Amino acid sequence: MRVLVVTAVAAERDAVCAAAEPCDEVTLPGGHELRRAAGLPVALDALAAGVGPAAAAAGTATALTAAALAGQPYDLVVSAGIGGGFSPGPGSGAPLGSVVVADAIVAGDLGAESPDGFVPVTELGFGTVVHRPDPALVRAVAAASGAAVGPVVTVSTVTGSADRAAELAERHPGARAEAMEGFGVAEAAAAHGVPVLEIRTISNAVGPRDRAAWRIGEALTALTGAFRTLPGALTATAGPAPEPHHP
After folding, report:
1. How far apart, in whole angstroms, are the C-alpha atoms of residue 146 and residue 140?
2. Angle at which helices 216-238 and 10-17 pack, to 10 degrees?
3. Measured between alpha carbons, how far is 112 from 194 in angstroms, rounded to an integer?
4. How open is the CA angle 235-236-238, to the nearest 5 degrees?
5. pLDDT in tens, 8-27
6. Cβ(78)–Cβ(3) under 8 Å?
7. Nucleoside phosphorylase domain spans which residues (predicted)?
8. C-alpha dihedral sign at 147, 152, 158, 162
9. How far is the C-alpha of 123 from the C-alpha of 139, rounded, in Å?
10. Around Cβ 180, how many Cβ atoms within 10 Å?
């Protein structure tokens, strides 16, 4: 199995690679650099594609296209990194330092404002606002990493107020985390017909912006831990290789 992991920034990519050292450098068209892990049960490439859904989609599409043209297509794309956790509540939320695996990768603010409130782009007759990873794969990866499962909301502007946090939580019931790249990665993966996952570790609370309360180092450490468990979960989900057929 070949897996492409897409993060926003180098620190997240390096946290992924720390679970699978050594990682070799591979340069893609356009100057993107992959880190390619060796010696794992699955082949894992990590890419820091940039911040936000547009950069994430562009970088993911570049890597998927390059792999396909080389005759080595990916079997899975994983959007990964740190993110904000919604306040814990019944069936929702995620505390600092925890791991979240998305069962829905949601575009949180793709649509239009109206006198009656926010209108998602689907109600305007365009596109999609959610990608749903394979449930069996989500369960296996979450069980292996000790993660919570729930929607992860992709936004273009990080939430910085209690009112905005409450609005997003009401619009997306059960949301566990907020991040900026998952939906862009999922759109590119869908365009290439490749399954997608999103794994987030929680560095801060969704709400009023308080950098002093952020736990970025802890979240990056948790990301490394989650990716140490990923190859085993993927291998177990894939099952044993088929026996060769002899006529």
Report:
1. 10
2. 50
3. 29
4. 65
5. 999 999 999 999 878 888 88
6. yes
7. 49-209
8. negative
9. 30
10. 23
DSSP state of 220: H
Where are the alpha helices (H) located in the chain, listed in sequence order?
A: 10-17, 53-69, 135-145, 162-171, 182-191, 216-238
pLDDT tens readout for residues 80-131: 999 999 988 767 788 999 999 999 999 999 999 999 888 888 988 998 999 9
Contact call for residues 168 and 175 (beta carbons, < 8 A): yes
Q: Which amino acid is at 103?
A: D
Q: How many residues does the chain have?
A: 247
d(CA 3, CA 105): 18
Beta strand 99-107 pairing with 2-7:
unpaired
Using alpha carbons, list the distances in angstroms from residue 212 to 98, 167, 203.
Answer: 18, 24, 11
Residue 91 CB neighbour total at 10 angstroms: 10
**Residue 205: helix, strand or coil by DSSP?**
strand
Q: What SS3 class is residue 134? A: coil
Closest listed residue to residue 102, CA positions, set 152, 169, 52: 152
Query: What residues are paired with 36 via a beta bridge?
Result: 24, 45
Q: Pick from 203, 227, 186: which is nearest to 104 by CA?
A: 186
| Mutual angle of helices 135-145 and 216-238, in 10-degree steps | 130
Whether the pLDDT of residue 245 is over 70: the answer is: no
Contacts of 71 (CB under 8 A, 6+ apart): none
